[in-house]
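Worked example 3. Consider a protein that binds tryptophanyl-5'AMP.
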Amino acid sequence: METVLSGIRPTGNLHLGNYFGALRNFVKMQHEHNCYFFIADYHSLTTNPAPVDLHGNVRQVLIEYLAAGLDPNICTLYIQSNLPEVAELYLLFNMNAYLGELERTTSFKEKLRSQPDNVNAGLLTYPVLMAADILIHKANKVPVGKDQEPHLEMTRNFAKRFNRIYKVNYFPEPVAYNFGDDLIKIPGLDGTGKMGKSEGNGIFLVDDPETIRKKVMHAVTDSGPTIMNQEKPEPIKNLFTIMQAVSKPDTIAYFEEKYNKCEIRYGEMKKQLAEDIISFCSPFRGKILELQKQDKYLHEVVGTGTEKAKASALKTIKEVREIIGFKRF
Ligand code: TYM
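Given these inputs, the predicted complex is written out as structure tokens:
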């Protein structure tokens, strides 16, 4: 049995990208592997959230994990900041993480552009913290979306480096994972880039039908194809990618054919897409609203999960301290 781990930052409600890139895999994998899923609240501090927002967002991700079908009886569900052992491993890995490789990370370069007024050290060492998350449980499979691939490569480098420096075969080399397929990137509704929490281009699992209809009807399109079998420009390709995630194969085939014959009416396509997204999201929404009232249950879930995760983290930290040469007096 392999050890699987993944996490999501609590920075807002979960969207279709989070679901298809990551959460869907969590739900499937929990039945077959030793799984750890957590809420990456240390990571969310890179944008300095207000304390009141932080707690609310952690609670919401917990609820959405459960609503999506994570079973706390079979997987280990916890909150990152409840395991300070992760912070210790992060400190230790930082000693062998080089400025050059951290500065070259794609996500860091993006942050330089998107938040130039707050380029903090937490952003720079973000991949080191991620490596600590993964390696604290010696996980070998990490279900994530395509955007996280470079971070997994860095995790493997940190693991290999540790093993080499201390001449041990201790940490595994974890791989980014998507159930039986390539890693996924769900695009946004604004025509370019990926669906994100803060980009204003996302559909959230908790969105109500009217909100979904509005968002989809506002999605960027063009004036339509003029040549048979024309290649799709990005905004249109994106709509088809989202359709592939939520619609039935014959629906997709119908609109593909219409596009290829230059007969497509985007209004019709968007209406269908909106209804398919609504059918997809409605069961989640129902469960989310239900779980929002169950404080006692949420409290129990976190308590049990923390206990299980703590046992595994303490074991790793104890062994790592011995390998490094920390000794008791
Ligand atoms: P985060 O919170 O940005 O996203 C959580 C997960 O959702 C995936 N994802 C997407 N997949 C496909 N299409 C999209 N548009 C899309 N948007 C988001 C992400 O790839 C991710 O899998 N650094 C991580 C959290 C983290 C983590 C870890 C993950 C911290 N430590 C250790 C795995 C292992 C992050 O920011 O994800």
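Take a moment to read the result before moving on. The chain is about 55% helix and 5% strand. The pocket of tryptophanyl-5'AMP is lined by residues 5-9, 17-18, 20-22, 40, 43, 130, 133-134, 142, 144-145, 147-148, 184-186, 194-195 (CB under 6 Å).
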